[in-house]
Amino acid sequence: MTLVSVGHASVRYPGGVTALDDVSLDIDRGELTAIVGPSGSGKSTLLTVIGTLDRPTSGTVRIGGQDVATLRDRRLAALRAREIGFVFQQFHLADGLSAAENVATGLLYAGVPRRHRRERALHALERVGLADRARHRPRELSGGEKQRVAIARALANGPSLVLADEPTGALDTATGRTVLDLMRRLNEEGTTIVLITHDRDIAAALPRQVEIRDGRIVSDVRR
Amino acid sequence: MNPVDLLGLGLLGLRTRPGRAALSGLGIAIGIATMIVVTGLPASGQAALVERLSALGTNTLQATAQPDVQPPAPLPESAVEMVRRIGPVTGASAVANTHAAVRRNDRTEPSGLTALAARLDLPAAIQARVRSGAWLNAATANFPAVVLGSVAAARLGVTDLPRGAAAPQVVIGDRRFTVVGILGPTPLTPDIDRSVLVGWPAAKSELGFDGHPTVLYVRSDEAQLEAVRDVLAETISPERPGAVTVTRPSDALAAKRATESSFSVLFLALAGVALVIGGIGVANTMVVSVLERRSEIGLRRALGATRGQIRGQFLTEAVVLAGAGGLAGTGLGLAATVGYAAWQGWPVVIPAGPAGFGAGGAVVIGVLAGVYPCVRAARLAPRAALS
């Protein structure tokens, strides 16, 4: 069953730069997809378009059958809060907050009542194996732990789709592998994951690889 | 989003950048503290004056003959006795200008002081206190004896009357008078301070005084003061009440004080300027923090924050910042006012207006300073987090 459907999407910036050129892509529920390509190929743009953080200049994006172009800011925000989880290369954790509080921030906007947030944040930290780091500040955590906190934040709401932009880009190989293993396990537990990488080895280890270059999809391989 | 969560978000930025928050809050605090001090100090001073006036007696009236009326209408010799018959009057006395020159001795120029004939009941009527020596009595009032007002005493060089020492003398008209007493200052009747006072009979015999009083001092029941005032002129001079001027000395002092306090409008304006500068400080902090926190804003949008929630967060932050500054400023202003008033021995009076304006104004400034940056923050594209 299709969860994400991108149809003939193009993103052009003022000044004639085309970041995405007539891209069509369907992603089914339960898939673990790698989008691979060199830097500047448009893979991050594709991710922001799928994640509704940017609208395509032309073409459509459907999440769960819903055309996001028809949604107003409030509905779009609710969609991001409940259905989509983001993981970034640079983690984007708030320094002043503990790991559990960082995870709870994701729940705040989903309208989870205050008294349930902490409990669900702890549960999410447990899923990524960081139950014992709940009270730690980001600066007290290693790079891999930070990324796992960020993954816990993306997961806390039980989203149907997790979008990860170079989640291993700021980590060494060994740590990167544990993060990837975590992603794979989450996928086995039922979460649809789209992962961006420029690393062909990482992409090759995943069930589906979409290769993108100069804003166009050049190959789409399922293993 | 519930208010507790919103407040939590608003405090987040301040918690993580306490130094900058404190500095921009300080601007607001100083503005509001100044505002409270410049309104609180004059108000406290005013209250102190009112207190002093009531201690001196705001129940005193003063009646004088109009100068320059034709034909001249001096107050009748029996004026004091007539006034005493008005029910609520508790005391009355009079002085009369003898128009005699006062000199330190017969070789000096006239001092410019006034020689007044005074009735024996004068100190009670104007609440004068004898600082040194004694007031006139039934005996000394018949002889060339004189009591000096406080300013007159200083000007004539007689500051003290030690017991047992030879009493100093001054020259009034062409006669020598022995100084028997010195009065303390009488703030309500400054004319008395600048006068030398001789007994009524002595003035008649020594200075050729005609016996008509020039100023009547009347004390009455405070509540009945207006009623007494209304009938005073008719009582003193039934034929020509228009020739008598009745005043309330405490009013003149209060009016003088009121002119002095108009200065404070200037200070109030300065405090307003300080407040505006404080507001600009808050606006500046907010603008900078929006620029610095692009990625945080983008992340929050990615996590599902609506534009309204981003606006709410930054607006709350600005309001909290200005509100805390306002609160600190109000505290500071109150402390300064209380401290100064205590030092001056004044009662503490803080007009509710400025104090309320302090707290309320700070919040308004917070809103104004926060609106533009938070609208900008909300307009940022969510993808800013990814770049």
TrEMBL record, chain A:
Q: Which PANTHER family match?
A: ABC TRANSPORTER ABCH.1, IMPORT ATP-BINDING PROTEIN
Q: Which SMART domains match?
A: AAA (SM00382)
**Does the entry feature the keyword DNA repair, yes or no?**
no
Ordered alphabetically, the record's keywords are: ATP-binding, Nucleotide-binding, Transport
Organism classification:
Bacteria, Bacillati, Actinomycetota, Actinomycetes, Micromonosporales
Give GO terms: molecular function aspect only: ATP binding
- Keyword ATP-binding found: yes
Identify this protein by name.
Peptide ABC transporter ATP-binding protein
Domain of life per record? Bacteria
Cited Pfam families? ABC_tran
In what residue span(s) does the ABC transporter domain sit? 1-221
From TrEMBL, chain B:
Going by the entry's taxonomy, the superkingdom of the source organism is recorded as Bacteria
How is this protein named in the record? ABC transporter permease
Residue ranges of every copy of the MacB-like periplasmic core domain listed in the record: 22-232
Q: Which Pfam families match?
A: FtsX, MacB_PCD
Domain ABC3 transporter permease C-terminal residue range list: 270-381
* Keywords of the record: Cell membrane, Membrane, Transmembrane, Transmembrane helix
Its family remark reads: Belongs to the ABC-4 integral membrane protein family.
Q: Where are the transmembrane segments?
A: 21-43, 265-291, 318-343, 355-375
Q: Does the keyword Cell membrane apply?
A: yes
How does the protein's chain sit in the membrane according to the entry? Answer: Multi-pass membrane protein
| InterPro entries, per the entry | ABC3_permease_C, MacB_PCD, Macrolide_Exporter_MacB
Compartments where found? Cell membrane
